[in-house]
Write a structure and sequence with these properties.
The protein is of the alpha/beta class. It folds into two domains: about 150 residues, P-loop containing nucleotide triphosphate hydrolases (Rossmann fold), CATH 3.40.50; about 150 residues, Hypothetical protein af1432, CATH 1.10.3210.10. It has 18 helices and seven strands. The strands form two sheets. It has a five-stranded parallel sheet, with helices on both faces. Strands 4-5 form a two-stranded antiparallel ribbon. Strand 4 and strand 5 form a beta hairpin.
Length: about 375
């Protein structure tokens, strides 16, 4: 959603984007309690743990915590960007985050220097380092074990670092292993998140709209309808992939392309839970979610459907999705000019897009052009 569309709807930002400001995130009582306990933990150091299935709010919780800690003068917050790194890269990033020159070729010396520098800094300025790690289930056991050794000295009697880990069930399984049991025993603050109820999701959506400046953008009835489907398709995709600024690796691309399947499964599960059968609206929703990345020439995903085998709802959404994405600012690219977007879509006629859908799109390009140039036009 570009700035002109935001202005058209009276929005300060896109309330549905993953990068909304922290103020748009709803601070529940459980998250408030966790953040308060984590703040108290920093005074003594140690480990905190946030767990939950994908889409339950782990990353949002970490954002809220990091924002609160950022206001404290005596706290230095570092956010690990590559939890999957090996020991050498882990040490390099730790050094970059906390201003300590580490030698990844000498693990013992690196730890010793880090501990000495941190201790000297803490003694001099009372500054306390906090390391935040999202998607911690991706961390290698050797790195997790090293992190435990890195965080304290003097037979664990003197804590040098506060660590906040967040991950899904795989992280819990690892922490219960014999190898990482010593780390698990050091988790002094824990928060186990669960999927929000429909009522909680409505509250989250209304809060986001209010903070974005358009509390009446959606009716209560529409919010109640959308709430159970709020995270279609993205519930199974790690946030580090959704928010990655660079090009995805081959492995990451495979993971990202699973989101149409995740989205369809969410709708199917919702139908089963509420006892709905043969609902036309949800049938169309499943077609949209599952097939909007299919391409007319059969090169799309997840099924590789071709031509008219792709449901019409998916063919329409394929073009709409590309048009909206090209106009929007993403973490990996800026918005394109309207003329360039039109050219790209027309060039995709018969390959990416249904020719008939592109022809219909071309007929309304003048209207879209006016809206792009004059967002006040209704």
């Amino acid at each position: 959603m570009n700035k002109k569309l935001l202005g058209l709807y009276g929005l300060k930002w896109n309330p549905f984007a993953p990068d909304v400001p922290v103020e748009a995130l709803l601070l529940t009582r459980r998250i408030e309690s966790f953040c308060w306990r984590a703040e108290q933990l920093i005074g003594e150091g140690g480990f905190a743990l946030v767990t939950g299935a994908p889409g339950t709010g782990k990353s949002a919780t970490l954002r809220i915590l990091a924002d609160r800690l950022g206001d404290k003068r005596d706290v230095k917050v570092g956010i690990l960007s590559r939890p999957q790194s090996g020991l050498s890269d882990f040490y390099r990033e730790m050094g970059d985050l906390f201003g300590v020159e580490l030698s990844p070729h000498n693990r013992w010396a690196g730890s010793k220097v880090l501990r000495e520098r941190w201790q000297a800094h803490i003694d001099a300025s009372l500054s306390r380092p906090v390391l935040i790690v999202d998607e911690a289930q991706e961390m290698k056991p050797a790195v997790l074990a090293e992190l435990r050794l890195l965080s304290s000295v003097r037979l664990d009697s003197h804590i040098l670092l506060t660590v906040v880990l967040a991950g899904d069930g795989r992280l819990l399984e690892r922490l219960r292993s014999d190898e990482l049991m010593p780390l698990n025993s050091r988790m002094r603050v824990r928060l186990a998140l669960e999927r929000a109820s429909a009522e909680e999701l409505q509250e989250l959506l209304m809060h986001a709209l209010q903070k974005a400046g358009a509390s009446k953008l959606m009716t209560g009835e529409l919010i109640a309808t959308l709430a159970p489907l709020h995270d279609i398709g993205k519930v199974g995709v790690p946030d580090r992939l959704l928010n990655k600024p660079g090009t995805l690796t081959a492995e990451e691309l495979v993971e990202m392309r699973k989101h149409p399947v995740h989205g369809r499964d969410v709708i199917v599960k919702t139908e089963q839970e509420v006892g709905v059968r043969d609902d036309l609206t949800l049938a169309v929703a499943k077609d949209i979610v599952y097939t909007h990345h299919e391409k007319w020439d059969g090169s799309g995903y997840p099924q590789g459907l071709r031509g008219n085998d792709i449901p019409i709802a998916g063919r329409l959404m394929a073009l709409v999705d590309v048009y909206d994405a090209a106009h929007s600012r993403r973490v990996y690219q800026g918005p394109m000019q309207h003329g360039d977007v039109v050219t790209m879509i027309v060039n995709g006629r018969g390959t990416h897009f249904d020719p008939a859908v592109v022809d219909a799109f071309v007929n309304v390009v003048p209207v879209l052009q006016r809206l792009s140039e004059h967002p006040e036009v209704q």
